[in-house]
Amino acid sequence: MDVLDNSTLAVMQARPWHPKWGARLGATYFVHKAFPWLGRYFGEARLRSTLAPGLDGIVSWGGRLPAKTAMRIARLRKLPHWHLEDGFLRSVGLGKDGSIPISIVVDDKALPVDAARASRLELLIRDAAGGLAHDIGAPIREALVEHRLSKYNNLPHSEPRLDPSTRRRLLLVDQVFGDVSVEKALGSASAFDKMLDDAIASGGQVIVRTHPDVIAGHRKGYMTERASKLPGVTLMADKVSAAAILAVVDEVWTVSSQMGFDALLRGLPVRCYATPFYAGWGLTDDRVEDRAQAAHARRATARPTVDQLTFAAFSLYPVYRHPKSWKVLEPLQAIDYLIEEIAANKSKG
Q1: Residue 185 · residue 275 · CB < 8 Å
Q2: Is the pTM of this model over 0.90?
Q3: Which candidate in 210, 232, 236, 310 could, as Cys together with 141 as Cys, close a disulfide (CB 3.0–4.6 Å)?
């Protein structure tokens, strides 16, 4: 087994649901190719094939076909399985551009976006609601808001181009069609239609945040095409940060986007038309379909504050590692690193 430093040992002790350090873990070809650095989170040994002998367990990334294949193999081989994903604070650049995340999450129960089952994140939020997490959660939330950070931090903080209005400004977040989080959060295409219908009926200024690739016709959204044909609805595809958008709206309505979580951290009212991890706790106005009622009943047993939610999502759940030295970081150290990276990128530009 690899020698453990004190910081890595502390992470293991705080997160007993993780694989043991140095465990022999299998992963699909997709994971090997897309995340060659991933083994650094579990020991110095490389990840192996899901079919290799003598495995201690199997890991998968996300919720698409390779992940489903890995889960099936784990079941057939009667091996433990862990779901992996980017943390809620990821990087300055995008993963598709090769940016290594500063954090990942490891879940032995379900993906964090999966509302049909209680993920490890859901259990941590429930537990945080029963404790005194404000002293840790509040400084993290305040630092994220002060430095205008989100999951990705590659876009400028320029003010979006919007028509002036005296009406309440409602931001509706469209998502790319087929987004795994929509189905996993017990949402649907009809949830986006209902969200748009409700917004129009409200009399507010309706702004639909869409993806630039959807506007360009490269991808399909759930409601962009319909919204573009409705009078009085503004499509926003400006390449600006989440913080810049949230600074100029009064409410955020979403199905399962992390934009709703960013809005909660900033004290904005959030309405959810599905069950992302931050919904169902009494912090959001939830307008869900019948199949999500069981998930909401399960979460109704706890009522965390926003700072307790922050503590669970940014401190208890993820593991932070410096993407060059691989040293374990605390959440505020990870925030400092991203601030430095953003400043360095600005000086280069």
Answers
A1: yes
A2: yes
A3: 310
